[in-house]
Structures are given as C-alpha cells and as structure tokens.
Write the structure tokens for this entry.
Amino acid sequence: MTSENAQKAIERLLAHAPLQKLFRALSGEEIRVVGGAVRNALIGAEIADIDIAAAALPQVIAEKAGKAGLRVVPTGVEHGTLTLVFDGTHFEVTSLREDVETDGRRAKVRFGRDFAADALRRDFTVNALSIDADGRLYDYTGGLEDLAARRIRFIGAPEKRIAEDFLRILRFFRFSASFGEGPLDAAGLEACIALRAGLAHLSRERLGAETLKIFAAKRAAFVIQAMSGAGLLSYLHVAPWPVRLWRLAAILAARKTADPLLALASLALHSEADAEILGEGLRLSKLQKRRLADMARVYAVWHGLAAPPEPGLLREALFLHGAPAARDALALVEAESSVAPDDPGFARADAFLRDTPRPKAPFAASDLLARGLAPGAELGEALKRLQALWIRAGFPQEPQIVANLIDEARASIGG
C-alpha cells in the first residue's frame, strides 16, 4: 500500500462520526485507534469494531466520558477496559498497560503511558498499528511491511508471545487464514508446534469460538491442513480429514457461499457420535450441536455414494430429517466423491432439496386406532411400519392407496 492510499484509508476511518464524538469527549487525553480497525482500514476490509487505547487511567476515562454524556460500562475494568456507549455505538477503551504476570490464560497488569511498550505487548505486528486523532500512523513493530506482504508474524520471540496466552496459537492460524498469503511464518509455526500442549489450558468456549473463526476464513483449508500435519488438531478428539475439507471449500466457493460449521463437519464429522464429541469439545451451541447431529444421520445413509442420491432417497431424507440436514449431508457426500466442485448432478440434487416441499404424511395414529389397535407399543410399531410402507410406495397422497397401506400396516401387527 502506498503512503497516499494509506492516508486515504486513515481519513475514511477517522471520518466516522461517533469516533469523532469520542475524540471530543476525551479531549486532553492521548488516545489512539488500535488493532484490528487500523489493520482492516489499511487493507480495505470490513471494520466490525473500533478499539481505543488511552494514555490515561480508567477512572479518568470514565469521568470524562460521563461528563460528555456517554454511558460507561466497566466491562473489564480490572484490566483497564471500559465500554463507552452512545448513538447506538460501542467503543472499547483500554488504558495502556503491560503484563506483570501471566499463566497463559490470565494476566495481571499495570497501567502506563507508553504507546510503544503497549504495542510491543500485542500478539502480531499487523495488530500493533495505531492512529491518533490527527491521523498520524504509528508502527513500532514493522507491521506495515508485514501487512503489505500479507505476512502474519509474532512480535518479538513467538514462544514468549504464546506463553502469555496460548490462544495465540489458534489466532496465528486464524489471522494467517484471514489475511495471510503464501507460506506460514516459519518461526511462528515452529513455536506453535513446540508449545501446542498449552492448548489444553484453554476453555472449550475459547477453543470453539476461535476454531469456527478459522473455518470462516478464506484460506481455512490451507491452514487447517497445516495444523493437521503439525499435530495441532488433537483438541478436536476426532480424526481430521483435510482432503474432504479442501473439496468442500471448492464446492462452497463454486456456490459463492461460506459455512464455518459445515466446513468443520467436512473435516471431522464421520458419524453421529462425532457430532456429540465436537459439540462438547468445542462447547457449541444447542443449535449447532443439533445441526451436526441431524446432518450426521442423513450422511450415515448416503456415505460412500459416488453420485447424487436418487430422487426417492432425497425425498425420504426431506421427510425424515428436513431440507437443511439433507442439504448438509449432500454437501459432505459430494465433498468425499471424485466429482467436480460444480458437478451439475449434485447441483440439481441440492436444488431439489432446496425447492421441494417437505412431504406431509396423509395419516396419523388415529387411523390405526380406528382399525382396532389400542394405544401402546403395538400402535407405535404399526405407525413405524406404516411410515416405512408409505415411503417405499413413493409418498402417495391418493386416499385409496393410503387406506390400503394403513390396512397393511394394521395387519402386520396382528391381534
């Protein structure tokens, strides 16, 4: 990026009206935009949050913000972080600090006024850039050069940075997948491998959140393959299948979509039991766990198919499990097959699942009760038999055909 382009990017960032209001509210204190907002502005990526570093103690920030009419939320005040809320916007403002003591998960800090020292305690060079209210860009670690080269590099000794917070192992791969190009930084990769046992100290919530962020990144397949080869996926507790992930990535690219949970499934879902293991090991949400389990049930039936399932099987999956589970399983089957990512047969099958209404059974337990079956185990068995007969018959809706199937199911029970 040229200096002219960088300056234009900075000007666009600082033109954000709520940010200007924040600068005015904290006038008299040296504050800067730091981290991801600066990085993303310089490369033209979307800016989700704007974080602020301040050369002032939290109580000073809180007092000035309060006087300016900003709502102050002490979200992490023990580490110097306040959230300032106004005009529907949230800003995290963190007082400059340095770690006094850390165990790889939590740190004790002391506050200071040295922006250079604050930058040097951050994780990667591209995350240590800062901009002041006048638009001056500060780079204490060579972050601009690394950003131009799309290189993710730890600040200082990688082993030291990782020992401060073992989540930085996964963050190294996440940022390499999101912003990096070319091979992974060799020193960083070596340090991640050497300290990989530290992942065991992380909570399942942190593991899950960071892992899904990796799968959401554009180079997820490349990075995950590197992690697999380096023995850095053992925390999944499921054997990884990087080749299937590569193929799913190509399929999703052909469809111009992204799906982190499906990408995770393509790497590590082999059975319904794996859905449970992944759900618990990564502390996934109930909806995410259910989605993995649902697709695993359909996948168990279709696993090994070299071509798209026939319409009858597609309709059966629609009836038993619904379109989302069936479409997920179809993507997994396609990813393990040898067809091209834009195979027209699988595309037609996916469109069929997407557009076909879920079959609705034209019978109920009351139909069997009317034919003399009593409530209980036999009724349940007859209903299952009737459902199987209806599926095998091709989901007919004609009253006489349905009546015959009900009679057949009733007769199969006896009594």
In short: The longest helix spans residues 286-302. The mean pLDDT is 93. The chain has four domains: 3-148, 156-231, 237-359, 365-413. The longest strand covers residues 89-95.
